[in-house]
UniProtKB/TrEMBL annotation:
InterPro entries: DUF3243, Uncharacterised_YmfJ, YmfJ/YflH_sf. Gene3D superfamilies: Protein of unknown function DUF3243. This is DUF3243 domain-containing protein.
Length: 86
């Protein structure tokens, strides 16, 4: 099963990557930029695998770039306490 197929596994995966980025000294602006780039890539290249991803993809598709950046930042907040290292 792909990490994208299960919402909780996806959040844990993102939480692990976020914790790793912070440990390696990545600042919040860079994290926000990367989150936006990942969100944009997923929206354009990956079919949603569950209800939550479908909702995010639908929101992303109608959002302005500023709103997409807000969505990406909210996802960072959502997963910041997830992952196996938290």
């Amino acid at each position: 099963m792909s990490v994208l197929e299960n919402w909780n596994q996806w959040k844990d995966f993102l939480g692990d990557r976020l914790n790793q980025a912070k440990t390696e000294g990545m600042n919040q602006q860079v994290i926000s930029d990367v989150a936006f780039q990942v969100g944009d890539y997923l929206a354009k290249q990956v079919d949603p695998k569950n209800e939550q991803e479908r909702i995010l993809a639908d929101l992303w598709s109608v959002a302005s770039e500023e709103e997409q950046r807000a969505i990406a930042n909210v996802m960072v907040k959502l997963v910041q306490n997830n992952g196996s290292n938290s």
